[in-house]
């Protein structure tokens, strides 16, 4: 193309002509400032973060004032020479800008804007409007210094004299009075139209976003309800629109009507905490509950036990050794109650069926929690170097040894309302132990153990950590059990227990002539196997981690569940006959080799299960049950074998 | 192609139908040196950078519009009718329900891709098969709604049999109704007699009034022009006085009576008459007065868009027409003509036939189209007319387009709001604009 042609202009007229020439870059509508959400404080980025470097090499912070934070000596050597670090420390603020502003004033777009000290946001607004080109900036001290009009007059003099060199005025003590510098408006962008990565680092632009986790909306200056401003934290259809930023801060009284005028709004939202306080002390920010901001979250003071209430090491061990049989006994009581519920008693899809179903699930899940407690107590004993304990209580022990105890004998009872009341009583929380008026609950005992372990001197740090962790877990679950049983009681209140209960209280073995007998026997065998296996796993001679071994043991427990469930269905209640004391050492002597869980399954559990299952196979469904139970035993053995 | 208007000098670039404003010197030089256009356009020249239309046949689009020739028969006996009283050379027939329902199913199946479609009723005179028209419309509306397809309806009718009940039905379904009407009573009745030689204007007018009384339809008047018609402006004004939403002219090129079809020499006065109408429309638009001359308004807005296409219409591509027996043709004018056959409603579209048709009809394969500057505006002319008569009207088409190009330049300069949004432009009063 000739130079002559290069200067020629074609004006596109219709749509295709206008769109024909492809311009590299994004259309104006994609520019950050075009986003409705990108004004201060912005959702994608805070526009102020762009304008804080409106002069290359200087960085301002536009908030209450426009504070000069840093000077880059490489980019602004003259200013860096004139303004000392001590000036910056004392505070230097923007007081005037002379340049070409986007909006005309009296038809003239080049003029000076003078700023009072505390108008940082207005400064930012005007500087945002500043167009590329030469400009003059006027700086002054953050405190002290000449009157506003004197700085302004001096600045205008400097402009009219077309000052090219920096002008710095100090008082007799060397304190900065004002400083004027010629500069250029930074363009922010590279030649490709990208925000210059050399000037803006990752995180620069997104700093101070309109984000709940940063500013708590205390100063949220926007109410852009039509878009996605998450101001409204709680929608209440029955009351006037109520936005978070409208609430009175620090006063326990929600506004009952929307704020309609700015004066009222300003008055109501004057924050007691500024951004700085919020950023530094975010953990202390009060939470808003039920539309009321709490002054602080109430936290109960830690309980400190009296010296003579702290249990010593042996007392803790003795308590754990007593707690294990309690957990075991409760677990079995819950399980029996669970099997006594006939989940099919009501019509499929009926409301009663749902209620009974939910109750059964809850009882089972609490029983499983108790199994876990039994395990945790045994883990605690093990971590203290003590032998395991898988016994079961007959009479509820007086663990605290103070004569206050829940009067209860172990028994297998149906899930009657009396039994449910007992469950609620035994699970009642007592996370604040009152030694003088001890509730006598299990939960209270765990709390006392926890405090004794943590506050006493009888345990190593490692032991304290391990025990405290497990004790807290048990305590937390106890609270949950109490609430769940209480809820069940409410929900079951409209139903007649005789409609959905099966099995007798205090069951006895059914006659040998009854088909249920063999299933009852299998259930008993599997219960025994589960306890035997747990005893082995928690014995000191097993090196593999208990966690992994318990995965295998769970298979045996599924066998127990299947056998107990089938027995219950045909009228043979699971008896949970406690096996005699387990002496693992007896097994260890066999064949001279150490007994492993895998060999234990092979040599003891498998023949024992097979013997119990022989008579089951003859009954309807018996063969299927036998096969599935043997398969579980196989799986357990595979799991154990892999761990060896 | 350089062209002048009252607002300056312009360059029309065939590739992409782009219009640029140029200065007088460049305009003068372009008159002598066509190659200069390339130099002037630089990198925007078609020879260096073409991205609009090439010789490739476009991929077949799904069917968007289907017309049903529900009555291949007519109550009028217009001498110029290409369809020969709607019979397309055969005997009079009415479409049966099974064919119509199959056709609707075909259209909706095809339109499922884009989610919108047009179902048209044609003839002959479609109201001769009124019962079917209503039944099919109701069925199609419901089926389309069920399938989430936005279906619009159109009807081409002589309106002479259109009663109040028809009008209410058409209005309910918001039909676009094209009424064939050639002008005021004397002109119309001379050209559009019934079988006994009586006039049809009064009947058509009553039908039109019934439609207008309902108000739910978009009504256009379509006037057929023969070499004997003469000045058009009085006809146009007479048609617009009837209160139709728009009116336009179509010259006869294919007619059973050769005396009624245009020859090359007939086009010259026709162009002058058309331009006379166009200037009246232009004047009205500048004055913000509605004067809906469809040939003009459509042309202006297409040019504003930079419309460019390798075909004159969407025949055999997005459009098809079904005869009474269920055969599908690329266009209603091609009904019964094997060259236009593209399938059957029962067996579906014959995509090979459609592709072949489109390949053959591509404007860059037509002579003398491929060297004509108007090729992508015109698209090569009506396939039916070209196949029957060749291209006797090219000078007229170019003349009319040249007039439209200049008119566009003037309107876009003087009343850009009209180009931007004609509806909004006319909805705003002159006083509001001056305020």
Q: DSSP strand (E) fraction of chain B?
A: 15-25%
Give the low-confidence spans of chain A: 212-216, 221-242, 431-439
Which descriptor suits the 3D outline of chain A? elongated
Query: Rounded to an integer, what's the Rg of chain B over CA atoms?
Result: 22 Å
Shape of chain B: globular
Helix fraction of chain B? Answer: 40-55%
Cα distance, first to last residue of chain B? 40 Å
Count of helix runs of chain B: 17
* Count of runs of 4 or more consecutive helical residues of chain A: 21
Average residue-wise pLDDT of chain A: 79
The largest pleated sheet of chain A is described as: 5 strands, antiparallel
| Record field, number of beta strands of chain B | 14
| Order of the strands making up the biggest sheet of chain A | 5-4-6-8-7
Query: What structural class do you assign from the helix and strand content of chain A?
Result: alpha+beta
Low-confidence stretches of chain B: none
Distance between the termini of chain A: 84 Å
Average of pLDDT of chain B: 91
Quaternary structure: heterodimer
Helix content of chain A: 40-55%
Note down, in words, how this protein is organized.
The complex is a heterodimer of chains A (644) and B (435). Chain A is α+β, with helices and mostly antiparallel strands and 644 residues long. Chain A has 21 helices and 10 strands. Chain A has helices at residues 3-6, 15-20, 48-51, 77-82, 85-90, 120-128, 148-160, 212-215, 262-269, 275-280, 313-339, 351-383, 417-427, 442-455, 461-492, 497-500, 515-537, 546-569, 584-588, 597-614, 622-643, and strands at 11-12, 58-62, 66-71, 92-105, 108-114, 134-141, 167-170, 176-184, 288-289, 292-293. In chain A, the strands form 3 sheets. Chain A has a 5-stranded antiparallel β-sheet with strand order 5-4-6-8-7. In chain A, β7 (167-170) and β8 (176-184) form a beta hairpin. In chain A, α18 (546-569) runs antiparallel to α21 (622-643). Chain B is an alpha/beta fold. Chain B has helices at 24-32, 36-41, 97-111, 130-147, 164-172, 185-191, 201-214, 233-241, 267-286, 294-305, 351-361, 375-378, 383-389, 394-414, 416-420, 422-427, 430-434, and strands spanning 2-5, 8-13, 18-22, 65-72, 93-94, 116-123, 150-157, 176-180, 218-225, 246-251, 319-322, 327-329, 341-344, 348-349. In chain B, the strands form 2 sheets. In chain B, strands 4, 5, 6, 7, 8, 9, 10, 11, 12, 13 and 14 form an 11-stranded mixed β-sheet that branches. Chain B has a 3-stranded antiparallel β-sheet with strand order 1-2-3, with helices on both faces. In chain B, β9, α8 (233-241) and β10 (246-251) form a beta-alpha-beta unit. Chain B is globular and about 65 Å long. Classes of the chains: A alpha+beta (644), B alpha/beta (435). Chains A and B meet through β1 and α2 of A and β2, β3, α2, α10 and α14 of B.
């Amino acid at each position: 193309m000739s130079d002559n042609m290069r200067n020629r202009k074609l004006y596109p007229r219709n749509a295709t002509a206008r769109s024909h020439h492809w311009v590299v870059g994004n259309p104006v509508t994609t520019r950050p400032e075009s986003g409705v959400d990108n004004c201060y404080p912005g959702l994608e980025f805070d526009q102020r973060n762009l304008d804080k470097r409106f002069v290359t090499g200087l960085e301002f912070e536009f908030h209450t004032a426009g504070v000069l934070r840093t000077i880059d000596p490489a980019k602004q050597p003259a200013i860096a020479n004139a303004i000392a670090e001590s000036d910056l420390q004392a505070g230097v603020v923007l007081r005037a800008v002379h340049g070409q502003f986007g909006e005309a004033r009296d038809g003239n777009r080049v003029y000076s804007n003078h700023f009072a000290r505390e108008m940082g946001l207005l400064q930012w607004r005007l500087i945002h409007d500043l167009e590329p080109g030469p400009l003059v900036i006027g700086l002054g001290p953050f405190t002290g210094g000449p009157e506003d009009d004197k700085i302004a007059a001096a600045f205008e003099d400097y402009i009219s004299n077309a000052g090219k060199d920096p002008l710095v005025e100090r008082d007799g003590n060397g304190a900065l009075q004002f400083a004027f510098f010629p500069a250029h408006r930074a363009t922010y962008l590279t030649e490709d139209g990208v925000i210059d990565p050399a000037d803006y680092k990752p995180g620069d632009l997104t700093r101070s976003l309109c984000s709940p986790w940063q500013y708590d909306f205390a100063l949220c200056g926007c109410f852009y309800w039509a878009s996605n401003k998450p101001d409204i934290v709680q929608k209440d259809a029955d009351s006037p629109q109520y936005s978070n930023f409208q609430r009175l801060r620090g006063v326990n009284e929600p506004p009952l009507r929307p704020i309609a005028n700015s004066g009222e709004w300003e008055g109501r939202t004057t924050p007691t905490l500024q951004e700085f306080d919020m950023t530094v002390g975010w953990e202390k920010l009060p939470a808003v509950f039920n539309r009321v901001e709490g002054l602080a979250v109430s936290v109960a003071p830690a309980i400190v036990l009296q010296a003579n209430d702290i249990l010593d090491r042996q007392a803790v061990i003795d308590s754990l050794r007593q707690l294990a049989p309690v957990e075991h006994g409760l677990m079995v009581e819950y399980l029996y109650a669970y099997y006594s519920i006939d989940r099919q008693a009501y019509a499929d899809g009926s409301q009663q069926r749902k209620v009974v179903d939910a109750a059964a699930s809850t009882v089972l899940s609490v029983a499983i929690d108790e199994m876990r407690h039994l395990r945790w107590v045994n883990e605690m004993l093990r971590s203290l170097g003590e032998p395991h304990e898988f016994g079961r209580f007959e009479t509820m022990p007086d663990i605290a040894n103070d004569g206050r105890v829940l009067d209860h004998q172990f028994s297998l009872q149906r899930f009657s309302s009396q039994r449910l009341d007992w469950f609620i009583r035994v699970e009642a929380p007592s996370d604040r132990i009152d030694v003088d008026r001890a509730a006598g609950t299990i939960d209270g005992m765990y709390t006392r153990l926890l405090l004794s372990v943590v506050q006493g001197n009888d345990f190593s740090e490692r032991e304290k950590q391990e025990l405290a962790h497990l004790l807290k877990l048990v305590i937390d679950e106890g609270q949950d059990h109490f609430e769940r049983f209480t809820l069940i009681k409410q929900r079951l209140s409209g139903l007649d227990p005789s409609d959905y209960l099966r099995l007798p209280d205090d069951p006895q073995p059914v006659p040998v002539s009854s088909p249920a007998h063999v299933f009852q026997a299998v259930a008993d065998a599997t219960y025994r196997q589960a306890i035997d296996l747990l005893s082995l796993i928690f014995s000191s001679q097993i090196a593999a981690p208990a966690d992994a071994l318990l995965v295998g043991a769970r298979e045996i427990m599924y066998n127990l569940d299947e056998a107990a469930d089938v027995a219950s269905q045909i009228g043979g209640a699971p008896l949970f006959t406690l096996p005699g004391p387990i002496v693992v050492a007896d097994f260890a002597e066999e064949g001279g080799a150490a007994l492993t869980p895998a060999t234990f399954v092979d040599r003891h559990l498998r023949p024992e299960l097979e013997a119990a299952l022989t008579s089951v196979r003859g009954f309807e469904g018996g063969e299927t049950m036998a096969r599935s139970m043997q398969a579980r035993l196989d799986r357990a053995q595979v799991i154990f074998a892999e761990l060896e | 192609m350089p062209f002048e208007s009252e607002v300056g000098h312009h360059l029309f670039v065939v590739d992409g139908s782009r219009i640029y404003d140029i200065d007088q010197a460049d305009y003068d030089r372009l008159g002598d040196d066509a190659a200069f256009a390339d130099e002037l356009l630089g990198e925007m020249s078609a020879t260096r950078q073409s991205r609009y239309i090439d010789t490739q046949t476009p991929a077949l689009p799904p069917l968007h519009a289907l017309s049903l020739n529900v009555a291949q028969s007519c109550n009028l006996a217009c001498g110029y009718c290409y369809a020969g009283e709607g019979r397309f050379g055969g005997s009079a027939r009415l479409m049966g329900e099974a064919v119509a329902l199959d056709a609707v199913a075909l259209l909706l199946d095809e339109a499922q891709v884009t989610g919108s479609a047009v179902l048209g009723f044609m003839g002959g005179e479609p109201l001769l098969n009124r019962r079917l028209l209503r039944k099919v419309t109701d069925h199609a509306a419901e089926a389309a709604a069920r399938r989430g397809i936005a279906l619009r309806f159109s009807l081409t009718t002589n309106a002479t049999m259109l009663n109040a009940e028809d009008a209410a039905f058409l209005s309910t379904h918001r039909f676009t109704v094209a009424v064939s009407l050639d002008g005021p009573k004397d002109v119309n009745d001379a050209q559009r007699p019934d079988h006994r030689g009586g006039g049809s204007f009064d009947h058509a007018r009553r039908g039109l009034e019934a439609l207008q009384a309902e108000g739910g339809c978009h009504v256009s008047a379509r006037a057929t022009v023969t070499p004997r018609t003469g000045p058009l402006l009085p006809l146009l004004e007479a048609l617009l006085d009837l209160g139709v939403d728009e009116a336009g002219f179509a010259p006869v090129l294919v007619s059973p009576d050769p005396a009624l079809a245009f020859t090359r020499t007939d086009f010259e006065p026709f162009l002058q008459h058309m331009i006379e109408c166009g200037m009246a429309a232009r004047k009205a638009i500048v004055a913000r007065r509605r004067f809906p001359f469809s040939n003009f308004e459509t042309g202006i807005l297409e040019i504003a868009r930079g419309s460019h296409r390798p075909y004159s219409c969407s025949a055999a591509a997005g459009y098809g027409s079904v005869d009474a027996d269920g055969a599908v043709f690329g266009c209603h004018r091609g009904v019964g003509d094997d060259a236009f056959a593209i399938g059957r409603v029962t067996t579906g579209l014959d995509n090979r036939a459609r592709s072949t048709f489109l390949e053959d009809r591509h404007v860059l394969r037509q002579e003398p189209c491929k060297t004509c500057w108007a090729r992508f505006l015109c698209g090569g002319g009506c396939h039916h007319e070209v196949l029957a008569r060749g291209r006797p009207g090219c000078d007229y088409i170019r003349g009319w387009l040249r007039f439209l190009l200049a008119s566009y330049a003037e309107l876009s300069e003087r009343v850009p709001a009209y180009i931007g949004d004609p509806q909004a432009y006319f909805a705003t009063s002159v006083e509001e604009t001056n305020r």
